[in-house]
Amino acid sequence: MGVKMMLPGRVGEKMGFLHWARFYSVLITRIPSIIASRPSVVDTRVSTFFHAVQERKKYEKIGALGFCFGGTMAIRLGATDLFQSAVVCHPGPFSIDQLKASKVPTSWVCAEDDMYFKPEKRLEAEAVFAERKGKDTFVDYEFKEYKGTTHGFASRTDLRYPETKEAFEKALDQAVEWFNNSTRAVVLLLFFAGYDV
């Protein structure tokens, strides 16, 4: 069983001590993958990949769709010219300085209960984008929260629950609509968690 299946799937689900112990025992076995996917390594790989895609396919515009670790990657790489638009779904940890450096229009898919993207961090992120209004650094943005959801819902939702299934589907619709409206003719390159934890 992967770690991702051990995380809460609905708001209000709690993990007891034994659940956390099992979670970390599985996570420890994934340390080599985590180290191999650290930002200094993975950002270079992704950059090389993006440049190769643009060169071979001659795409004019590329959109980045990032989930969890991939969401954090989209935030970091949003400071480059690799892509022209992004959708960030329940990101992992990131700094406000990384966010301030981002220069691409970004749509945010937010969980109601997210251990990595807590409400305070979300408000801080929204403020970073709002402060740019009327300035040369302004980029279009939106934040949408999906009630009844937890971290990971847009990529690993539990389809047994109607509210999380609906949120999962609406998050996909949000991403499609964002790319259609923000960049047109965009190619979606998916960033998932860099390892199956």
UniProtKB/TrEMBL annotation:
Residues 50-181 form the Dienelactone hydrolase domain. It holds the Pfam family DLH. The keyword Hydrolase applies. GO terms for molecular function: hydrolase activity. InterPro entries: AB_hydrolase_fold (IPR029058), Dienelactn_hydro (IPR002925). Keywords: Hydrolase. This is Dienelactone hydrolase endo-1,3,1,4-beta-D-glucanase.
